[in-house]
Amino acid sequence: MERLKQMDDDSLYNMGQTRGCSFPPPLPEMYAAEPSELYQVVLRHSYYPPIIQTNTCTLAVPFKEQRHHRTPSESIGNNYSLRAQYLKIDALQQRQRALRQFLAKEAGPSSIPTQLRQATGPKRPESSGHTSTSSQPKHKRQKLEIPSSRPMSPTEQLVIMHRQEEMIRANQNEPSEKDLERYSYYINTSVPFHMLAPYTHPQMANIMSLQTPEPEEDRKHLQTLRDDLTEEVKRDYYFSLRKSIVDYILMDPSECQRVSISSIPKPFPRRVIRAPVPWALSCIEARMWQSKHLLTVCPIMVLLKQVWVERYSSLRFVKLADLFSNTLPLLPSEFDEFVQRQCQATREELDETWLPYCASLFVVHENMWLPLLSQNEPATPLLVQEFFHCVAALMSLQLRSLVIESLRDLQQFFMRHEEGNDFGEVFDELTYIQTQVLLVNLQEDQSNIEFSPSFQECWEVIHGAFMKIIKSAEKLPRLECKLFSDIDNLYLRTVRPDESLVTDIVAKVKDAFQKNTTGPKKYLGVYQKYKNLLDNTSNEDISEFLKENHSLEEFAKKIKSIDDVWKEVASLRINVPLSMFCLNAGGLNDHLCDCAERLKTRIVMFKVEENRKLNEGICKKYKEIRNTARSIPRTTEELVSLIHYIKQSSDVTIHKIVDEVDAAVDRLSFLMDYATQPVDDLKLNSRVFLWHTRIVTELENSRLRLTVLREKAEESLKTRIFNLDQRLQELEKDIHTFKKKEIINTEEIKHNVATLCQITSNLEEAVGELEEINKEQTLLDREQTQFPMLQTLIADKQPYEQLWNTAFNFDSMSEVWLNGPFRHLDAEKISDELDTMWRTMHKLTKTFFNLLGPSHVANNFKSRINQFKQHLPVLTTICNPGLKDRHWEKISHTVGFDVRPNKNSTLQSMLDLELSKFSKELEEIGASASKEFSLEKSMDKMKKEWADLRFSFSSYRDTDTKIVSAVDDVQLLLDDHIIKTQTMRGSPFIRPLEAECKTWEEKLLSMQDILDAMLKCQATWLYLEPIFSSEDIIAQMPEEGRKFGIVDCYWKNIIAEALKDTRVLVATGQPNMLEQLQESNDHLDEIQKGLNTYLEKKRLFFPRFFFLSNDELLEILSQTKDPLCVQPHLKKCFEGIAKLEFTEELEITGMVSSEKETVPFTEKIYPAQAKGMVEKWLLEVESLMLKSVRHVIHQGVIEYAEVPRKKWVLQWPGQVVICASSIFWTSEVCEAIQSNSLPVFWPTPHEQTAPVVSD
User: Where is this region: Disordered (predicted)?
Assistant: First the structure.
């Protein structure tokens, strides 16, 4: 075996692949099954030639050395470096002699002998060691140094290194798999272990010294891990040695060729930045500065760290152990108070213990830090400041660690509930067995169930707990404030609320909090069935129930249903554990029970009150019967009515009340089961049951009393009839006296009129007395008495009354007409009254033709009336209200003298002037004055109608701007008055008023133009204002926007002025109002033309806009920044799209049909990228609509063959189902036709459709 091992690396067996022939030759078949060990060694060496000699005294000699005849020293030297592979000891001696000769001559670098350069050889670099031993002066040696390169930055050096690496890679090949396999083999097996330098113990000791202290509880586990790492270090060490040897040998190309390795893996390039660099001086200065100012390694700093680790590292602002020891869950207010107490206690401990103790350390161990602050250096104050800044930084980091750990502990406390509390369909209290944190009450608030406190308030408490931890660490004084009394307002830095660490913690806790709000909200569904108790619906139901008539059995059933609800509510959970929250539903349950109890009480009290009212009604009826029966009638009518009432009560009313008493018995039985009646109600019930016996006796006594009163009434009636007859006979005598009266003086006339008035009054009283007598006779069932004399007397009195009344009226009024001022007389009215009087007298002359006295009076007054009628023409003329001064001048001119009436002028004075001679001329002047006066009145009337006529204004939307409304009355009145004014101007009597009438006509026409222009401007302004209030529209139509601004300014100014005085005459009298309105209408016409052109361009860009009206399109274009505004109009643009699917970022991801079928888009559409051009992204929607429908149909066709049809139909939109089904149906029909199996295929479509239709 030893011999075989020595042969293993002998050159005798180093053959095989390099010879190009099969070696060793194959064994005969008889020996091939079990080859010898020697043959196996030769066979292995033929495939893997050895690279290390194993039979030499020198270890790790390359196999290639067998080709050379070198001494051991030369062999070692040659293998030390490839550059020394041609090194000979003799050549070294020659080089030393040449070098001595060179130094003796003290020649410069340029005079180095050629022999010296040849001796060193071109393949050997010059050694700097030779020049270092020279005895030349310093300035002579510097001439031999190579000039240094300019300082290069690391970036520049890396660029050069990368360039060199690229050049090397370009000239080298990547190793093949065979190269890698052979290379791995030589590393793992070709270098024997005994040739490797052993692993030294000091190296392992140095590695072990870098370990951290071991906790006692983990010592066993760490020992196993340490042993594994030790073995790994050793393996890596020996592997590295083997690899280095193999890599060095394979640096010789001949060796690579011999072992058939064309290329080896390239090591990772070593990029070393070498000096000098541009910032070398800065680096040195920084190193020197740090050596002076790096104070973190000061002993006092180490002591501060040790104190913190030993005493305060476990300190927390909120101690979870104390939190768990509390009775959880807590109300949010209690939790907030607990966190506040904990944070305050920790802050006090830091402020009163930690900081004073650290200050005492500085005092006790001042030798650890005072020497660092030398008093002799001028920079000592700055160094002191830096030192305490370093102390503050260390303590700030410690304080930050306390805050961070406290925040993380509190986070972990809440993250125990991060899974949330979504309990699914049915709540199970055993699902959440962890201790809850916050107790939330369920309470009723305005008919809704609310959480008290609300989840927002709960989150504010939790968020406040984190903020309290942070705030409690703020404003802690630095150590200088404790050491030096004259220093204050210096504080340690701590965690800020806006740091990402804090926001991440708070965000995670908030996410867990949000997950825990699902369960409580879902649990409210338990109370959904009792919502009617909270939202007053149940009260309304009870109200509706009580409004209707129900039997006692229905009332009992209603009360039982309410009792069942009460029992259900009373059995609900009081405390509901839901992970982070615990719901306290006790108060809500009690409230619901109270609501149910109130409903029940309301029904019962309704019946109690109803029973009380009905019983009181029964008693009231009995009392009414009793009181009415006891009453004393004052008239016959009352007597008869009372007799009928007693009869009706005895025969009918009493029996109805008895039925009501029976119902009261049933009500009393019902109430005894559900209510406790008060004493007054019990007494009332007793009275109801006792009334019947008492009322029968009362009725019988009243019947006897009324019989006696009836007899007395009949006797009184007979007496009244006799007295009336006597009075009528006396009146007949008084009327007959007027047949002989014929005296017609004023006093006699007045006396006769007074007498007739008294007779008329007596006759009217007699008529009333007769009616009362007949009424009583009817009531007492007696025959009515007739008095024909009464009607005869009334007929006889009437002509005498007309005669003397007419005579009296004419006598008194004619005096006023003749001798009173005529300015206030109405000639037309006087004429009518005279006609009436004349006709009356003419009729009476015929009536009294056989009575001398009355006939004489009638004829006398008839002639007097005829005589007064002759003055009517003059009276009509002078009493004309239209007479003006110009008319009196005409009258004066006609009669030939001046006629100027004053306010006291009378008709008699005018008659004395003999104006009656000119009656015809006066009538013409009066007629002309009447016409002119009529025109003047019409003018004044029109002006009065316009004086208080005002414009009506209404608010425009929710703005302060007003608009004109309800102008129909103004337009109708304006049109009517324009026609009237134009008609008046055509009258022949208009001349005195012509100028005024013309001015008024111009005013009316101007108002008509202004009103027409105003209404036109307002209508167009109302249409365009919402459009041009959008900045998007103004940006796209700047010229039209500018013009609309002018119109808007004009319009608002006009309306503002009109609002100051809304009267039409004043509002339309603004300066230049018509011109401004006409200019505005011109601008509005131009704006509408530009708007139509703009809309036409949009429609041409996106033709589907033609399906929208102008108003709908403008609504879209005025809100281009909000893509959601297009949603209501999509149905008109795209027949199949009802709306689009938008993300929260307003990205369009799909389309939804009217049937709620959704088709996702193959790509997202970003409306924001269109920069307000709605038509641009709508074109994308149109394109993606086609592409997406094509895509979804393609996917549906693919899945048709993979999914059962019944399930497939429900998964895809209807259009996909129809299209894919048609494709496969056509394909299957074609196959059936080609295969002549159509009768077999015929039932298949029905079989496919039937399950879907049946479902």
Answer: 104-155
